[in-house]
UniProtKB/TrEMBL annotation:
Gene Ontology MF, one: branched-chain-amino-acid transaminase activity
Family that this chain belongs to: Belongs to the class-IV pyridoxal-phosphate-dependent aminotransferase family.
UniProt name for this protein: Branched-chain-amino-acid aminotransferase
Coiled coil (UniProt feature): none
Keywords, in A-Z order: Amino-acid biosynthesis, Aminotransferase, Branched-chain amino acid biosynthesis, Pyridoxal phosphate, Transferase
CDD domains noted in UniProt: BCAT_beta_family
Pathway(s) of this molecule: Amino-acid biosynthesis; L-valine biosynthesis; L-valine from pyruvate: step 4/4; Amino-acid biosynthesis; L-isoleucine biosynthesis; L-isoleucine from 2-oxobutanoate: step 4/4; Amino-acid biosynthesis; L-leucine biosynthesis; L-leucine from 3-methyl-2-oxobutanoate: step 4/4
C-alpha cells in the first residue's frame, strides 16, 4: 500500500462558467485543459513526496534536466465518463496503473505506487468534475506522465522524477466516430523492434512513428500501419492503436503481445467481450500478404483499430506504395459496431459490468 498523501490547493482563479462552457462547446481532442493538475516528486533516498492537487501551470525545468537529453519519460491515457445520474466513473484505472509501473521499470525510472496513481486520477476528476462533457462521445481525458528531472549530463538512470496528471475535456478522436478510417501501410519505417521499448508507453515510441504518420497524411490517410522490424511481413499495430481482423466465420485475429507491441487496455477488454459474445479470438501473427488475400477472397469481412482515445474505429481502406484495397463496403461492420456499443455502455454505466471495470468516482 502507498502512504503518499495528496494535499489540495484549489485554483485561486479558475475559469468562469461562461468561459468553460464556450471551451467545451467543441473541444476537439487534447486542446481544452482543465483548471487543475496533480504533481508528486521523487528523489533517491526520500522516495515519492510532496504530492498535491494544484492549479495547472507551466513546469519549471532546468535546461540540463535528464528528460531533455536522455528521454526518460513515460505516460498513460485514460478517461473519466459522465454517468446518467450526473456522476462520473473511471474505466479500469488499475490496468493503467500497472502498465505505468511496467513502463517505468522498462525505462529504468522510479515506479510510481499503483494505489497513488489511481488516487491521483480520482482526485483530479473530483476537483475538475465540471469539465466532464455530457455530450455524446464526450469524456474527460486524463494524461498521467513522469519525467526525469535530475540536473546532469551523463548517461545513467536519473535519481529525481516528477509525476504529473493533467486533464482535457475531449470529444471524438476522429472527425466521424461512426465512419471508417483509411490507413497507410508503412514499408520503410518501423515503430519498435524486439528487445526495444515497444511495450512501454514512452514518448520515444510515438516520436518514432511521426515520420510514418506524416507520410500517411500526405496520402490522405488518417493512420499508419506498422509491420514488424525483423521481417517486414507481420502486422504489429497502428501508430497509436492496436488492430483486430474479423472473419466471416466469427473469428477475430489480433497480433500477439510482444516487447514491440503495446499491451492495450481497450484491446484486452475487447478480447474479453468478444469471447463472452461467443466469438473466437486468436492472438496469432498475421501477415500483410494474408491481409491482402483474405480481403480479395472475401474471407475477411472487417478490420478495426482500438485504443483509449479512438475506442473502436473501423478500417475501411488500406493504401500503400503498391496497395489500395477496400475492406467490405468501407463501412462500419456489425462486429465492430456491436463491440463498441458494449464497451461504451459499460464505460458509461449503461450496461452490466461483470468484471469490475466500471469504477465510480462520485
Amino acid at each position: 500500500m502507498s502512504d503518499l498523501t495528496f494535499e489540495t490547493e484549489s485554483h485561486a482563479s479558475p475559469r468562469s462558467v461562461e468561459e468553460r462552457t464556450a471551451l467545451m462547446a467543441n473541444p476537439g481532442f487534447g486542446k481544452v485543459f482543465t483548471d487543475h493538475m496533480v504533481i508528486a516528486r521523487y528523489s533517491a533516498g526520500r522516495g515519492w513526496h510532496d504530492a498535491k492537487v494544484t492549479a495547472r501551470a507551466p513546469l519549471p525545468l532546468d535546461p540540463a534536466a535528464a528528460v531533455l537529453h536522455y528521454a526518460q519519460e513515460i505516460f498513460e491515457g485514460l478517461k473519466a465518463y459522465r454517468t446518467a445520474d450526473g456522476g462520473a466513473a473511471l474505466f479500469r484505472p488499475e490496468a493503467n496503473a500497472r502498465r505505468f509501473r511496467l513502463s517505468a521499470e522498462r525505462m529504468a525510472m522510479a515506479p510510481f505506487p499503483e494505489e497513488a496513481f489511481i488516487e491521483a486520477q480520482r482526485r483530479l476528476v473530483e476537483i475538475d468534475r465540471a469539465w466532464i462533457p455530457d455530450t455524446p462521445g464526450g469524456s474527460l481525458y486524463l494524461r498521467p506522465f513522469m519525467i526525469a528531472t535530475e540536473v546532469f549530463l551523463g548517461v545513467k538512470p536519473a535519481s529525481e522524477y516528477l509525476f504529473v496528471t493533467i486533464a482535457s475535456a475531449v470529444g471524438s478522436y476522429f472527425k466521424d466516430p461512426t465512419g471508417t478510417v483509411t490507413v497507410w501501410l508503412s514499408e520503410h519505417f518501423t515503430r519498435a523492434a524486439p528487445g526495444g521499448t515497444g511495450a512501454a508507453k514512452c514518448g520515444g515510441n510515438y516520436a518514432a512513428s511521426l515520420a510514418a504518420q506524416a507520410e500517411a497524411a500526405r496520402h490522405q490517410c488518417e493512420q499508419v500501419v506498422f509491420l514488424d522490424a525483423a521481417e517486414r511481413r507481420y502486422i504489429e499495430e497502428l501508430g497509436g492503436m492496436n488492430v483486430f481482423f474479423v472473419f466471416g466465420d466469427g473469428t477475430l485475429v489480433t497480433p500477439p503481445l510482444s516487447d514491440s507491441i503495446l499491451p492495450g487496455i481497450t484491446r484486452d477488454s475487447i478480447i474479453t467481450l468478444a469471447r463472452e459474445d461467443g466469438l473466437t479470438v486468436r492472438e496469432v501473427p498475421y501477415t500483410i500478404d494474408a491481409w491482402r488475400e483474405d480481403v480479395r477472397t472475401g474471407r475477411l469481412t472487417e478490420a478495426f483499430a482500438c485504443g483509449t482515445a479512438a475506442v473502436i474505429t473501423p478500417i475501411g481502406r488500406v493504401r500503400g506504395r503498391e496497395d489500395d484495397f477496400t475492406i467490405g463496403n468501407a463501412v462500419a461492420g456489425p462486429v465492430a459496431q456491436r463491440l463498441r456499443t458494449r464497451l461504451v455502455d459499460i464505460q458509461r454505466g449503461l450496461a452490466e459490468d461483470r468484471h469490475g471495470w466500471f469504477q465510480r468516482v462520485f
